[in-house]
Amino acid sequence: MKGRVNTINHITILADSNIASLDKFFNASTLGQASEQAVDIITVAGRDINASLLAELQPDILLIRSVTQVNEALLANNDSVQFVGSATIGTDHVDQDYLMQRHITFANAAGCSKHSVAQYVLTAALTLRPQYWQQSITLGIIGLGNIGSTLVQYANDLGWQVLGYDPLLPKSKLNNASLEQVLSQSDVVSLHVPLTDKKSEANPRGSNYPTRHLIDAEALAMMPADTMLINSARGPVIEADALVADIERTGRQVVLDVFEHEPQIAERLLSKLAFATPHIAGYTVEGKLRGTQIIYDALCEKLAVLPTQTMHALLPLNLFLWSELKAHPDRLIKFYDIQQDDASLRSKEIDGQIDGADFDGLRRDYHLRREWQF
Ligand SMILES: NC(=O)C1=CN([C@@H]2O[C@H](COP(=O)(O)OP(=O)(O)OC[C@H]3O[C@@H](n4cnc5c(N)ncnc54)[C@H](O)[C@@H]3O)[C@@H](O)[C@H]2O)C=CC1
Ligand SMILES: O=C(O)C(=O)[C@H](O)COP(=O)(O)O
Q1: Which residues does the entry assign to the active site, renumbered to this chain (predicted)?
Q2: For residues 155-179, average pLDDT
Q3: What's the pLDDT tens digit per position in 225-261?
Q4: Quick count: other Cβ atoms within 10 Å of Cβ 168?
Q5: Span 90-99, mean pLDDT?
Q6: What are the backbone angles phi and psi of residue 193, rounded to the nearest 5°?
Q7: CB distance 93 to ligand 2 below 6 Å
Q8: Dihedral of CA 299/301/307/310: which sign?
Q9: CA of 355 to the centre of ligand 1 (A)
């Protein structure tokens, strides 16, 4: 770190306790600190990282996942933080312009769980419609970045057609359709966009193709009733009330891993979903470790030290091979039992809703899956 962190004799890290293998990646030895320089890690639940904690602890480094909003409100009374690392792909919880103004370095973990999320989508679709193992269906993919393009690889391997829509990328063999075509011509539509709002003077980082409520009543009306919809991107990409009305009208199979009002879910939505899971599409041993590795590498760069820890040293043997699953589709439940995740979430319903603490608890205690080797 070009400033204070290099010159102090200890580094204080405040971190979300849901980040994998924190102690293994962030200690004096892995951060290249001399013997007299300590590294203190204070871990708390991500939603408990707040302005008063930051003012009290004055950490040098803040390590988060997606549930901590990082903005002026969090950091206004803090002048110690010099690096924020989010062990997630999504960045909608971070005000990056504010961090830049404060000269705070920011890193996220682009691509860390791309295979895990793609495998979640395949599992959902193939558990609900096992006949798709043998059929050349059309998979519609909205957002062709790391996850969307990884999903394409599996779809190609299964002999599926892909209709892709991504207005921010050049047209190509994959980016081959309009939003209307994807919605109206696919057997399954899967969303892989970031959560963005409209670009404006007040929001220069916004998008000309905002995704908040991209799937609203009008979009849903374009989809045939038997088109399955899967959202493992961000909840507010789908307008929840419009979705409830759509399912009531069409009986559509809808799979949600993320929810507009997360971490709360209303029973009137939950009861209509084919599968509902508590934002765990990326929760594999590999996906989470890769997230930690990426922000660790970025912090090492900031500290100008060579990274010495690697996730490969921490990974248990992995025997989950995509080639095996493809040859034996009946083994899907052993690769990923999505029905179990769905049942665990539904078992938490009390008085017509899932409470936020229960939703977060399922995520905290989640038994991480293994990522299939592609
Ligand atoms: N459920 C979960 O556990 C996880 C959810 N996610 C979510 O998935 C999102 C996507 O992840 P990646 O593919 O790795 O991100 P990425 O940044 O690699 O790709 C996103 C793609 O979406 C495209 N896009 C943006 N606006 C669009 C629009 N209006 N219509 C169509 N395409 C649009 C972009 O051009 C980009 O190519 C993340 O931002 C995150 O919110 C990521 C990891 C795990
Ligand atoms: O990477 C992302 O983006 C995600 O959504 C994560 O996989 C889930 O992040 P947490 O909510 O566990 O921070």
Answers
A1: 234, 262, 279
A2: 97
A3: 999 999 999 999 999 999 999 999 999 999 999 999 9
A4: 13
A5: 97
A6: -110, 155
A7: no
A8: positive
A9: 27
Which residue in 306, 331, 271 sits closest to 33, CA to CA? 306
H-helix or E-strand spanning residue 139:
strand 138-142
97 is in an annotated binding site: no
Cα 44 → chain centroid: 20
Question: Residue 141: what pLDDT?
Answer: 99
Catalytic one of 65, 93, 115, 262: 262
Question: What is the mean predicted confidence (pLDDT) over 201-214?
Answer: 94
User: How many whole angstroms separate alpha carbon 52 and alpha carbon 45?
Assistant: 15
Structural domains in the chain, CATH included, are 10-108+285-313 (3.40.50.720), 114-281+331-364 (3.40.50.720)
Mean pLDDT along residues 41-47: 97
Let me know: does 253 contact 228? Beta carbons within 8 Å: yes
Segment (H or E) for 25: helix 22-25
Q: Tell whether residue 127 is among the known ligand binding residues.
A: no
**Whether residue 235 has its Cβ less than 6 Å from ligand 2:** no
CA torsion, ordered 180, 184, 186, 187, to nearest 10 deg: 150
pLDDT by residue (tens digit) across 123-147?
999 999 999 999 999 999 999 999 9
Q: Which ligand is nearest to the CA of 277?
A: 1
Residue 89: the pLDDT is: 97
Q: Is position 93 annotated as part of the catalytic site?
A: no
Sign of dihedral through CA atoms 288, 290, 294, 296? positive
Q: Is 160 helix (H, G, I), strand (E, B) or coil?
A: coil
- How much is the ipTM here? 0.99
Residue 128: alpha-carbon gap to chain centroid: 22
Counting from 1 in the atom list of ligand 2, the atom nearest the Cα of 287 is: 7
Q: Does residue 156 register a pLDDT over 80?
A: yes
Q: How many whole angstroms separate alpha carbon 251 and alpha carbon 243?
A: 11
Looking at residue 10, what is its pLDDT? 86
- Output the CA 180–ligand 1 centroid distance in Å: 19
Is 113 a pocket residue for ligand 1 (Cβ < 6 Å)?
yes
Q: Is 324 a catalytic residue?
A: no
Tell me if residue 371 is catalytic.
Answer: no
